[in-house]
Amino acid sequence: MTKTQVGKSTDNQEIDVMNVVSMTKPVLVDDDVAIPDEHHPRHFLDLSGVSIEFQTNKGPFKALDNVNLKINKGEFVSIIGHSGCGKSTVLNIVAGLYKATEGGVIVNGKEVNEPGPDRAVVFQNHSLLPWLTVYQNVELAVKAIFKKKKTKPEMKEWIEHNLKLVHMDHAMHKYPAEISGGMKQRVGIARALSMEPTVLLMDEPFGALDALTRAHLQDSVMEIQSELNNTVIMITHDVDEAVLLSDKIVMMTNGPSATVGEILNVDLDRPRDRLALANNPAYNEYRSKVLTFLYERQRRPRG
Amino acid sequence: MKTKLINYLEMTGFSWLCPVVRLCSGESPREQVNEIINVIGLPLIAIAAFLFIWAGTASQVKTSLGDLPGPSQVWEQAQGLWQEHQAEREKEEEFYQRQEERNAKKLEANPDAEIKMREYTGRATFVDQIWTSLVTVFTGFLVGALIAIPMGVACGLSQKLYTAISPLVQVFKPVSPLAWLPIVTMVVSAVYISDDPMFEKSFVTSAITVTLCSLWPTLINTAVAVASIDKDWINVGRVIRLHWITQVFKIAIPAALPMIFTGLRISLGIGWMVLIAAEMLAQNPGLGKFVWDEFQNGSSDSLGRIMVAVLTIGLIGFLLDWMMLTLQKVLSHDKNAGR
Ligand SMILES: Nc1ncnc2c1ncn2[C@@H]1O[C@H](COP(=O)(O)OP(=O)(O)OP(=O)(O)O)[C@@H](O)[C@H]1O
Ligand SMILES: [Mg+2]
C-alpha cells in the first residue's frame, strides 16, 4: 500500500501531484491505520465496507462492493465516475435514503440509519416543490427542523439569510416555474444550507446547467464554502469541476460491484481562481490524473 | 393592465376574448381581427348553421304531440317557463303576506294567541327543479369526493392497500349507478327513518346515486397520482423528517392535485348525467322529473319544454366543467392543466 504525506505548503505542489493512492484494498489516505472504535471514530465521516445489493426482477444486483471512504471535517470531497457506476447510491447511503446491505456509515460519531437534516441533500434536478414559492420551499425545511428552536421572526430571518447567501433574495416570492434552472439549483442549495447540515451532500448539482451558469454557481459554492467551512460530498461528471472545487477526489470504478478506485488529494491554495488555475501546472497535472483514471483505466462500459 | 386582464381571461377559460382585448388596445389589428374570426366567428357560424338546419328539418317530423319544435318555438317555451316561475313566486309571496296579515290581526285581538306559519306548497317550477338538481349533484359529488380523496391517498401511499381493494374497484366501477338505484331506494327507505327528516328521502336517494358513480374516477386518479409522485419530492420530506401527516398534506396532496382535479371533473360530469337519468327513473324531484312529467303530460307544449330542459342540462353540464377547470387552474400548481 502506498502512502504519501499530504503536503500543507503549496510551494512543492509538483511533488504533491504524485499524491495518488492507488489501491486494491481499502483506502487509507491518512498515515495511520484506523482503529475501529465506534464511539470515537477518528474521522468525521466514515464509510467502512459498504456494499449494497438491489433486488431486481432479474435477481439481486450488487451495485457497490466494499466501499471505504474517510472524510475529515470541513473537507470538500468530489466523487467522480462513469454514469451508472453507483455514485448516487453512495450518496444516498450516506444520506440514509438507502440502507447498505453490508458495512455502515458513521457521521460525527453516530451511525447513519435514517435520513435527517444533518445530512442535507441537494438533488440532481433541484426537486423544488413547484406549488411553493422559493421562500416557502426553504420555509418548509426550516419550519420542520427548527420548530422548537427558533421563533417566527428568527425563522424568517434565517430563511432570508440563506437565500441571500446564494444570491436569490431578489426572487424570494417567485414560483420555481418562473425562475431559471441555475436559480432553481441555487434555491436547492439554500434549502440544504438552511438545515445547518454537518455534511452537505450534492448529487450532480450543476449537471443540467450550461457552462456559464455552471461556472457561476461553482464560484458561489466556493464562496459559501470558504464562509461556512462545511463538510461537503459532491457528485460530478465534470473533471474540471472536481479539481477546482475539491480537497479530495474519489474516483470510482465501473459497476457492477463498483468500489473506490483511487483517491486524489488536491492541494491547491484557496481561494481558487479558475482563470489563474488554467495555466497552473499542478492544476493541469491533477486534471490529467483524473482523466487518465476515467479514460484509460476505467474505460466507459459498453461505449 | 392589459396583460393582467389577458391572464385573467385565460385563467377563467375566456381566452377567446383575448384578441378582442388586444384589438381594443390597438395591438396589431390585422392579426387580432383574423384571430377573432377564428376563435369567435367560426363557432358562431357553426351555431347558426345548426339552428338553421334544426329550424328547417324540425317541422318535417310529425309526432303524436305535433311537429317537432324548432328554435323559435323552443325559445317561446323557455320564456313561458320563466313566466310561470315568476307567477308562482308572486303567488308564494302573496300567500305569506296574507298569512302575516292574518297573524297580525290575531295578535291584535289576543296578544297570547298561538301563531302558526304554514309553508307554501306550490308546484315546483322549472327553475325550482334546476335548483334541486344542482343541490343534489353537488351534495352527492362532495360526499363522493370526501370519501374518494382520502381513500385514494391511502391507496397511493400503501401499495398493499391498493392491491387489496383494486379488484373491488374494478368490479364496481363499470356498474351503472342506475342499477344500484333500486337497492339504494330500498335501503334508504329502510334505514333513513326519522320523524323530522333533515332531507327528503328522494333527495338522499338521488345524492347517494351520484356519490356511487362519482367515487371511482376520483379514487383511481388520486391513487395513481399519489403513487407516482416524484421520488425526489418524497425524499425531500424524508430528509427534513416531516411527520407523515405533514408529508401527506404538504407534499403528497399538492403534488397529486392536478390529477385529483381531473378525476373530480370526470366525476362531476358523470354525476350530472347520471343524476338526470336517476331522477327520471325514480321520479325524484329535479330536472329529470321535469322531463319525465312533461313526457307523461303529452300536451302540445311538452316537446318544446323538454327541449328547453335538454339545452339547460347541457348548458349546466358545461358550466360545471368550466367551474372545475377554473378551480383547478386557481388551486393547483399545474397552470397548464386541461388545455
Ligand atoms: N433502487 C434501485 N434498484 C435497482 N437498481 C438500482 C437502484 N438504484 C440504482 N440501481 C442500479 O445501481 C447502479 C448505480 O446507480 P447510480 O444511480 O448510483 O449510478 P450513478 O453513478 O449515480 O449514475 P449517474 O451518473 O448516471 O447518475 C445502476 O446500475 C443502477 O441501475
Ligand atoms: Mg446519479
Task: Explain what you see.
The complex is a heterodimer of chains A (303) and B (339). By secondary structure, chain A is of the alpha/beta class. Chain A contains nine helices and eleven strands. Chain A has helices spanning 13-16, 87-95, 134-145, 152-165, 181-193, 211-228, 239-245, 274-278, 281-297; strands at 20-22, 45-56, 59-71, 76-80, 102-107, 110-111, 119-122, 199-203, 231-236, 248-252, 260-265. Chain A has a seven-stranded mixed sheet with strand order 1-11-10-4-9-8-7, sandwiched between helices. Chain A has a four-stranded antiparallel sheet with strand order 3-2-5-6, covered by helices on one side. In chain A, a hairpin with a 2-residue loop joins strand 5 (102-107) and strand 6 (110-111). In chain A, helix 3 packs across helix 4 and helix 3 runs parallel beside helix 5. Chain B is globular. Chain B has a two-stranded antiparallel ribbon with strand order 1-2. Chain B folds into two domains: 2-58, no CATH class; 127-332, MetI-like (MetI-like fold). The longest helix of chain B has 39 residues, at 71-109. Chain B starts with a helix and ends in an 8-residue tail after the last helix. Chain B is mainly alpha-helical and 339 residues long. Chain B contains twelve helices and two strands. Bound molecules: adenosine-5'-triphosphate and magnesium ion. Adenosine-5'-triphosphate (ATP) binds next to strand 2, strand 3 and helix 2 of chain A.
Write the layout of secondary structure elements.
The complex is a heterodimer of chains A (303) and B (339).
Chain A: H1 13-16, E1 20-22, E2 45-56, E3 59-71, E4 76-80, H2 87-95, E5 102-107, E6 110-111, E7 119-122, H3 134-145, H4 152-165, H5 181-193, E8 199-203, H6 211-228, E9 231-236, H7 239-245, E10 248-252, E11 260-265, H8 274-278, H9 281-297
Chain B: H1 2-11, H2 18-24, H3 29-58, E1 62-63, E2 66-67, H4 71-109, H5 126-157, H6 159-172, H7 177-191, H8 201-227, H9 231-239, H10 244-282, H11 287-297, H12 302-331
